[in-house]
Amino acid sequence: MSLIKIAAALGTARWRGAGRVLHIVLVEPEIPPNCGNIARTCAATGSRLHLVEPLGFDVSDRAVKRAGLDYWHLVQVSVHPDLDALFALHPEAAEDLWLATTKAPRPYSEARFSPDCWLFFGRETAGLPLAFRERHRDRCVRLPMVSGARSLNLANSAAILVYEALRQNGFPGLTGTGEMA
Known about the structure:
- This protein has 181 residues and is an alpha/beta fold.
- It contains 7 helices and 6 strands, in the order H-H-E-H-E-H-E-H-E-E-H-E-H.
- The protein is globular and about 45 Å long.
């Protein structure tokens, strides 16, 4: 059985309890290290990772082991053939989604994230599809940056939004102190 199937079978409850969980959606991701870094953020936060095909890399057991992703077993990963399939399987996603895009009219700091919202991120080279962004225009947010900067790295952008959503909800299920406490 693949690690993806094992993680799905275990369910979200293993990571953050049977309650609510953030969903991170990468739409047609292209760069393996970005996906790996985002998967690590998901592992550390108990967030669920959704990958929308086509993928620019292989997520088979063999590829994951070869890449040395020793935390992959902590990530609940689902692979969807396209956005329509994701929404067919998870209609609740359409009710509570946020789209990260450099083209957004407002900063992420104005968003009010729920504990189980869906955060969408697009391809590294093209972002989210225009029709998808237009359909959810009021749910598009951006990370502020200087005017000459094109964008932040995808993994950095995802980590910022994940932790902002968790902060707004009191970091549910996460340890807030270290051994120095």
